[in-house]
Amino acid sequence: MKKTYYLLLLLVAGFAATFVAACSNDENDEEYIGEIIDNPVTGITLNVTGSEIALPDIGDTESVAISATPANAGDIERYHYLFTSSDPRVFTVNNEGLVTATGYGEAILNVVAQNNTAISAKCKVAVLGVRVASITIADASKNIELVRDNNFPTYNFSVTVTPDNASIKTLKYTTSDYKVATVKEIDGTITVTSVGKGAAIIRIEAKDGSGKYDECKVTVKEYEYRLLDRSKWAAIDSSPTTEVTVDEYTSGGPAYVIDNDGLNTAVGLLKAGAPGGPVSGQPLYFTIDMGEAKAFNYYSISGLWAGSLNSYVKINRFSLYGSNDGEIFTPLQENITVSTSVYDVSALLNNTHTYRYFKVAVTPSSTGITSGRTYVLVKDFKLGERVIVS
């Protein structure tokens, strides 16, 4: 019985010795359990010149030494360090802290104590090559103005980077307000796209750490369509008209085209050949006095366009004339085609005009007189001015 007991004690003691030896086998992983160190290491610094390691070109090297604080720390000899690069494409580093440049750019050197990860330090490593000396936006592109009209207009330009042999020519493009304008670059062409009203600063910056950049201002405005006040307008002349009620529309003289009731009334211009209508070859028209000269550059016309049943009362095109004496009319734009598939059409004129009187001459979609359709209908006609607003 005693022999068995002694043998068991020997086995336990041997196992304990083996376990302790296994846990202490790594000579670089030193643990001093239960030992109190007076004046321990509290931090480290990297012995580099300035705030970063600057390597002139690819293949250049620099050794990094480490200083522990305090310098007389009691456990300073026990510290081992791990060196890593945030981007091996820029530089690599070995276990002794030798930094080797592998490409142009910037990356971070990280150093951490292996036996105390709370102790660490880092610094920037820049592989300089030939740095950008200047980035220049041409004066013509310094102040860009874009005007939106239910679209997103763009502006293209380029920049000049010097010197030509700069090692890193890639640039960074940013906008101060994505709600106003965006910016991107494709194959050397920089494109600014308008988004909404306002102003934004476009910044173009070198990526080589040189800090070189240039900026331009983008102002986005919008078009606003302002209809002319028709309260003083008066219908003063027209070709022969007819007063009928057809398809819930009441037609009559030219006053109906400016009565602000484009849903229910229309001017009914008799076609050539209709009883009481104009002689063949004479125009169908109406004339309006606006009361005073007004500037305008766009029109809005409404008619009974849609539906094949009413094809004989549609207009195909019209011409617009202006006058300041009511007698001599100048052509402003002629033969403006109107699609017969829509009710209302608004569009810009070729130019801005200022007149007191205007005349609208229409050409019927069909000159035939069938099923009593001896006329064409124009429900509403408006003039206005498109202006730019900030």
UniProtKB/TrEMBL annotation:
Cross-referenced InterPro entries: Big_2, Galactose-bd-like_sf, Invasin/intimin_cell_adhesion
Record-annotated BIG2 domain positions: 40-123, 131-218
UniProt cross-references to Pfam families, sorted A to Z: Big_2
Protein name (Swiss-Prot/TrEMBL): BIG2 domain-containing protein
Organism the protein comes from: termite gut metagenome
